[in-house]
Records
---
Amino acid sequence: YRVGQSVAANVYRAFRSAGLFLLTDIETVIDEEEEEKFCMDTGNRLTCNDGSCYTISEKCDGVFHCLDGADELDCPEKLGPSFTPINKRLWPYWNRFFTLSFAWQSTISYPDGRAQICVDVPTDIGTWIVSAFSISQQNGLSVLPSVVMFEGTRQFFIVVEIPKRPRLGEQIGVRVDVFNFQAHRIEV
């Protein structure tokens, strides 16, 4: 047993919640129909990826009743007034589009087994842990034996936010954030 980032009840559901298909020639003991039948037998309910159940009326109601939000998947987009709360409007631009999966890529390897991937590492503050796996006809599933850690925190940087197009005579505000992650003070 290994603790992972998925709330899935078993390996099959972990693959399914990640949008992957489990293709294998071994006999699996997971019977998806039996799992879904259990929830249907307990009051006409649907199955979450972690094995718990939710009612049909809870599907697409805007509230997560499953730990991974499976009850809100494949829901039609709700149309309504477009309102952005003030905390989201004033949040720094680069934090709103923060992505944790910048290195998730699929590539085909060279005949000798090597593969090369070039990605732009985000400039966000944080430590990135990178791992890899591959699937081949000869070796099956191969996993990188150890993870690679990358520290993405810049020691000193400045972020400036200004309007894109000021007009002549207009009074504007310029937001300047100075970040110092060094162990000592610095004069700017």
Note: The first strand starts at residue 45 and ends at 47.
---
Amino acid sequence: MRFLRDNSIIPFDYLVDETAVHWPKDEEFEIVYILYSFKKNERLRVKTRTKEWEAVESVVSVWGTADWLEREVYDMFGVQYANHPNLKRILLPEDWVGFPLRKDYNIRLQDVDWVRKHLGIDSGQKYYVGEARHEAGDYITPTD
């Protein structure tokens, strides 16, 4: 990634966005970086895949904007970043169970009382569904 930033022909000097795609059947994440070159007005999308249990090397030392972007990906998907200076949840409370943008996350298992108490959101659901448990392999198909 440092090569892309420091390239003399097309220097991609700005990390516009970083996100992930969860592929539960392959037990993988696809990490997607959107780069921009101010000098050439060019964009580049870089994708890499990693196993769910492997850490991805942080690019904070290359682009400072990666700091909060990687924290968001960690918070929503559970992607671990090696050498990140402050990897912790950024949107959800520390005691939140699971990672909501993973395809195996089942929102129906979230404790509705917890959501109401901590987020002030009333889902209209009047009963407790059960413990919030989001384990790898609990894949929810789009038809569920």
Note: The mean pLDDT is 86.
---
Amino acid sequence: KEGINPDDFKVAKVIREKDKPSILVANKGDVRGSELKLYEFYELGFGDPYIISAEHGLNVDDLLDKIISYISKVKLEPEEEENILKVSILGKPNVGKSSLLNNILGEDRIIVSEHPGTTRDAIEIIFKHNSLKLLFIDTAGLRDKAKPKEDVEYYSTLRTFEAVHNSDIVLLVMDSTQGVSMQDKKIANYIQKERKACIVILNKFDLIKDNIDKKLFIDEIRYELSFLKKSPIIMTSAITGYNTDKIISKIKE
């Protein structure tokens, strides 16, 4: 809408110095008269600009395809890839997946909110623990019924399934206060179909009454998750840090 300004040239200079694949995006391309300023963007030296409207979704799908084409070319070195254990974190929204990962990492790397669905896409973080190198994949929460018309929700779900498919181990995180829901069972069934090693995490255990029979509680969970009968179960609290150290130990096994 406004064309380029001196700051754009400064940013372009920094990008060129990095010598990385670059995409020039001209937003607000649906505004009347904006096409008259498009020729200015060629002065930046990045070739044809992608004309989009983030507000109205104009050409955004083409831009995503272009970005994905670049990402697909980025590969880890064979040796490096072989030495990394891929661990995806799966579960319903608001069960504490991101908080749990932050606790394992020992720092707040993932945004955490009380509102379900803060993590809308899979987030990958490499974590080294002694000689063990892990690639944690914090996935978007899988809702009971994803509305087909909500594109972001739909594609987040697809990417979550893809993350599980590419993982070596899956951490199925559940809310201890809610027990096993139908959605938990569906997720467990999917993990079993993918034949993935799984660790069941009963998070928010600090909210469970102290006098609970833990063995009976775990037996009930295991009965409900019949698809994952042989999977180890760990009771944790991402808030207090209770038993979170056992997750890495169990992954090592």
Note: Helices lie at 6-18, 60-71, 78-82, 97-105, 151-165, 182-193, 214-224, 245-252.
